[in-house]
Amino acid sequence: MKVTRRDLFVWGAGAAAGMVFSPVPWKLLDDVSIWTQNWPWIPQPPHGPIEVKQSFCTLCPQGCAMKVKMAGGCPVGVAGVSGNPVTRGALCPLAFGVHQLNWHPQRLRAVRHKRVSSSWSEARAAFAKACGEGPIVIVDGRPGSAASSVLASFAEEQKGSYRVALSLETRALLPYEAMVSPVIPASALGYDLERAQTIVSFGAPLLDGWGIPGRFTRLWSERAAGMSEPQLRLIQIEDSLSRTATRAWRWVAIRPGSKNALAAGLARVLVEEHLVSARGPLSALTVSDAALQTNLSESAIRDLARTMVAKPPVLAIAGDERPEIAALNFILGSVGSPGGIVRRSKPTEKYELANAAIPNARAVLIDASVPWDYAPPTDAEIFRFAAWDGGSNRADWLLPAPGFLEEFTDVNSAPTSAVETYGVAPQLTKPMFEIHSAAQFLSAIDSSFTNPETIIHQRCADLFRERAGTVYGQEIMPVAELDSAQKFEAELSKAALWVADAPKSASLLCELKEWPSTSPAESPRNWSAAWAAAVLPPLATKLYRESSLREAPDRRTA
Prior knowledge:
By secondary structure, the chain is an alpha/beta fold. Helix content is about 30%, strand content about 20%. Among the domains are: about 5-35; about 50-100 and about 165-350 and about 410-430 and about 465-558, 3-Layer(aba) Sandwich (Dimethylsulfoxide Reductase, domain 2).
């Protein structure tokens, strides 16, 4: 019998069809699924009462409010809190899987020195020795927190340097530090999105993970989505058709690297055509020059300037640190006015940035709040606190820090927020091994420093003493109606959020002495790399890596 090529195809198709309808492969698949779910190293929630508690996510500075489902004292699920006035029930995909991270295979469970197992006593001895031999640098990612007070005080006591690694959204506010008087640090400024009528985004992914999850997307859905004449106009200026650009009221496609030139051209049109009342120095760039650099026509730039101011207040938002966009906001009169750049809290100390040069340092201590990919520009001995080992990071010491819900800490105002807020994230679960925060580590070396918990108690007492603001918890109540500081702190300890009264925007004094020189800075090619955690929980892995939830610009198509 001769077997032809056609016979092989026919038999193969019949076998494939038989396998589909046969129960054998599906039974094998089910057995494998059950088997893999019961591997001994996979943690099993203990048997016990099911309860729901509230807390805040501390993976990033946004500090989103969340409900945590607990089984026998173990977190097994999270959800947003719809009653929270800031996040309004929204969470990012990473937060939805955060309860899985404490058992991640890359969780740091013991001290490591040059990738070899060590101990906390050896780490403390090594850092104390370094403090006595030369200058130290402490890098923090959450300035203003209770733990930050310990880090800053220790650096000052040792005559060292305290530095901060700011979020991308906060770095975009840095140019305003040189414009306002007296100087107000970027960490005390925010965007008054709620009162803006026109928002001009220079590459900021406002609908693609920018700022507080749910804040702008809620505003856009309520005031713009599906409307031919939206209450909130979003103009996206970008060189590629991003997800934000596709949903914007208008997308302005420009040549890559020409955002600064467009800002200069728009400012010139606004002043020359008397479209704004503000006056100030302009760039030497003409509208014709801006048209040539942006690949837009001169008439298109003039039309865009008129469209911007047709529906005030107008707010320009930069995707990164761009002094030219800050100067454009000054020309628009948007600095220190409703619907613009506002001061959300009292002026605080201006911080030295983490990416500045570090000369002659003996040791650098990096807090767990600093992004994993931060590499200090120095050859000094590095002590790195982290809950998870993200790999490929030059650190002499890796020190296990608290993970999700494993420490009592406070949560300050989120970057981009227009109002000051304060919350307390209670410790809801016990760690399975010895961990310490950077503040606890330093307090063990020098016991004269106040521990973070005491600082949190004092801050709660100070907020209550001012008798201002509102507490958002199970009930909404003004602070003035609470009986005592203990009652106020008890509410915050149950993950209620204190929200300050609306700030007086007009109190900002602003001056633009000269138009900024052209900045070479460009937006990161992959926005997700700017804020991704060192590791991802299984739930978020598919969302981020396989589904490209935050699309990289080089994958976009116009």
